[in-house]
Design goal:
Elements: E1 2-7, H1 24-40, E2 46-49, H2 53-66, E3 71-72, H3 82-89, E4 98-102, H4 106-116, E5 129-137, E6 140-149
Parallel strand pairs: 1-4, 2-3, 2-4
Antiparallel strand pairs: 1-5, 5-6
Helix pairs in contact: 1-2, 3-4
Length: 154
């Protein structure tokens, strides 16, 4: 299974937290990364998004480019736990790739848990993507990092 974790792009500060919108820079970041995803995601990929405005706007950049629909999942809201994300994605059993558009520190915790089997908070830049893949090899399961993309490098 492919699990693509996409942190929302740069957002304005303020309250309420769920209503924070992308800045102009964030809109550009979201478009650049959406273009990269559009070129690499298979048509079968599902896109699951936190209900926060900034994640909705980030995912909308991909939807506008590709016509791909996304689904809002309340369990992915700010403060989500690692297991919330993994359950939403049906990790590692989903047959289709899953894109999760979410928040820090949760996404960094998911990467730490899956890649290093640690409960740590790995840094995850705004607008960045970590593309992970679960595979079986030599009788065991492993997680492979397929790509790490930051908006300034696409």
């Amino acid at each position: 299974m492919d699990l693509i974790l996409w942190r929302h792009a740069e957002a304005e500060y303020g309250e309420p937290d769920l209503g924070r919108q992308l800045t102009g820079k964030g809109e550009k970041q979201a478009r650049r990364v959406a273009e990269w995803l559009y070129q690499h995601l298979p048509d079968s990929a599902r896109v699951l998004v936190s209900p926060a405005t900034r994640t909705q706007q980030t995912a909308r950049a991909l939807a506008e480019l590709s016509g791909r629909k996304f689904r809002t999942v309340d369990a992915l809201a700010p403060g989500a736990r690692v297991l919330d994300v993994l359950r939403a994605a049906d990790w590692p059993d989903s047959k289709a790739p899953v894109v999760i558009v979410g928040h820090q520190p949760t996404l960094g915790q998911v990467v730490s848990h899956l890649v290093a089997d640690q409960d740590a908070e790995w840094s995850f830049k705004k607008g960045a993507v970590w593309w992970l893949q679960s595979r079986s090899r030599a009788g065991g399961d492993e997680v492979v990092v397929r790509a790490v993309i930051n908006p300034e490098f696409v």
